[in-house]
Design goal:
This protein is mostly helical. The protein has helices at about 1-45, 60-75, 80-85, 90-95, 95-105, 110, 130-135, 150-160, 165-170, 180-190, 195-205, 210-225, 235-265, 280-285. α5 (about 95-105) crosses α7 (about 130-135) and α9 (about 165-170) crosses α10 (about 180-190). The longest helix has about 45 residues, at about 1-45.
Length: about 290
Amino acid sequence: MLRRAGSATARIGAGAAARAFAERAAGLKGRREKLVAGLNEALTRAGLTGRFSAAGLWEVFEPLQEASFAALATEASPTVRALLQQSGGYVAYATDPALVGQFAHGGALAESASTLRVGADQRGPASLAGRYAAACGAGGMTPLSLGAAEQLAALRALMEEEDALVLRDARIGLSPEPALRRAAARAARQLAGVAGVERAIDHFERSRDAESAAALTDYLAARRAGRWIAASSAPALGQLVTRAGVEQEEAQTRVVAGMTAAAAAPQPAPAPSPPEKPKGFLRRLFGG
């Protein structure tokens, strides 16, 4: 009897434990479903079509990661949200959370990107700055060998400075050093127009300055091939374009001055007409 009583007590205890476990599981399931519903509502407001699922098992940090993505998508600009949607949304975020998180914060480079390219930098273990540039369509814009402080400076420049657009369009690499970056950006504005660079090349060729013409020709060839020019080389190239413009203007000024001087010079007086012979003389001479 004692054994049967002990067995019954054990069964009652096991049943109570099972009921308690089931109640806790049901409570956790309900809270999970409520959380997922709230996250999906946030994605709907952000205009993203992907949805989280309450089924299956979560990884340890998966709830936090899903909540972080929903918050980023909600706070992002419409342009960035559209790029997130095109790139796969949460799948892209799960692939590289740090990169997509920075991209979602926007910035001139991100806002001007045609697509979000996660995993676009294939140069090896790239820094976050390098991955960010590649995701914005400017892969290779940042140097590979950067220290931790330089990586942070480069990332801030890519995200916060309008000069990043000018450098990208002129294919001038980004320097983590502020002074050099500003000088390179000034040069990039001088080099921005391909037609202006071509006029400078033509000027130097006509002026028989083969070295200057070759430097700009090499730059254009590299730019058209998609290669990046070191930031340290950009100021000298920009100065060549400026010099060509000044020399062309001076030449035009000399031509105009010469034409003006020629127009203002006094005209020589007309030669005097020969004296008219008296008609009576001719009649006498020919017997008229």
